[in-house]
Amino acid sequence: MRTEVALAEPVVPVGRGWTTAVVLANVGVFAAWLGPIQVLLAKQSEAVAPGNKEAVFGLVTGIGAAVSVAANPLFGALSDRTGSRFGRRVPWVLGGAVGGAIGLLVLAGAGRVAWMLLGWCLVQLFCNALLAAITAAVPDRVPKLQRGVVGGWVALAQTLGALVGVGLATAIGGITAGYVACAVFLLLSVVPYLLVSADQRLPVGERPAFSLKAFWISPTQHPDFGWAWLTRFLMNLGNGLGTLYLFFYLQDAVRYHNPDTGVLMLTAVYSLCVVGTAVVSGAWSDRLARRKVFVIGAGMVMAVATLILAVWPTWPGALTGAVILGAGFGVYLSVDFALLTEVLPSARDRAKDLGVVNIANSLPQVIAPAIAAPVVATLGGYPVLYALAAAVTLLGAVLVGKIQSVA
């Protein structure tokens, strides 16, 4: 395979089979993350440390997210430099799935905080290897004017992953069984991509040199990439503040009688609304060749959703917030992903650069627990937490207007 084929901007549209395989792999990795985050880790924290559940949950998720911050760009850079005969991405998709499943099995048997930390850090480490590779496959293979609709389907993968993960965590029964079910699903989810990826091999002589300096992308030299990174960070910080403590919000503020079932119901409602907006908005964005107006509008809608949770801590309020948040998040995920692929500095470093972008996804998971825990405990509780989430999300939406090279 010629080098220019591996690194050139793609022009041939991808088919449904390839898109389906990429989406399914994304569903698997997000199920492995969000099933534990939304239900299993919260329940396990309560079982291990009933008098200190919020702190344990914040510690485990925060340290795991710190691992994610470093892992995604690192594995992305390694993926860009992989000369395997199977291609640049396939080895990391397979290895990431296997390692992530092992981490979930460690969590399944964890009866102490130290084992929870080890298991969750393994999940974050290896699932980020998988995510870095499968995310880079999109700009590797998908032409720019098809990325909105493909981004819409990838956006659905995150939402469907949340639904599958929470469903497995809730319906299977028990913390241990929930983790095992997520591990099995993760392994099965990558099989179609491994079979149909047609991943392009990069000749050894054309591998980019590895340097720690490569992980710094100057916002002065690449200002649009810098603004895209900052706005994604703010959007994800707002989303993290709004969703991290959802289980405890239902339990302690809404006083819903069965909070784990409540999380599942809200996730299902939210997922349906994401499905209703993601692919449609991505395709519409492709037709209009415009991205920013969709992302700005989506951020404003998401801010409204978190304000509703702040001022209306009831079950009907939570349902209303889930509907609005899902509608906005579907638009945001699909179109913002397409926007980001259009401001990447280099085709040679797509996975590494998207890994740097993914720091904007994972770093908020480190910061959000540090902010949320004291706010919930002593600085005003859930109304203040969700009002803060709305303000941060709105700031991110406004700053999207600073991006100049994308309409």
Automatic annotation (TrEMBL):
It comes from the Bacteria. Gene3D superfamilies: MFS general substrate transporter like domains. Keywords: Membrane, Transmembrane, Transmembrane helix. This is MFS transporter. It is found in: Cell membrane. SUPFAM superfamilies: MFS general substrate transporter. The keyword Disulfide bond does not apply. It comes from Kribbella deserti. The chain crosses the membrane at residues 21-41, 56-78, 90-111, 117-138, 150-172, 178-196, 233-250, 262-281, 293-312, 318-344, 356-377, 383-401. Residues 224-407 form the Major facilitator superfamily (MFS) profile domain.
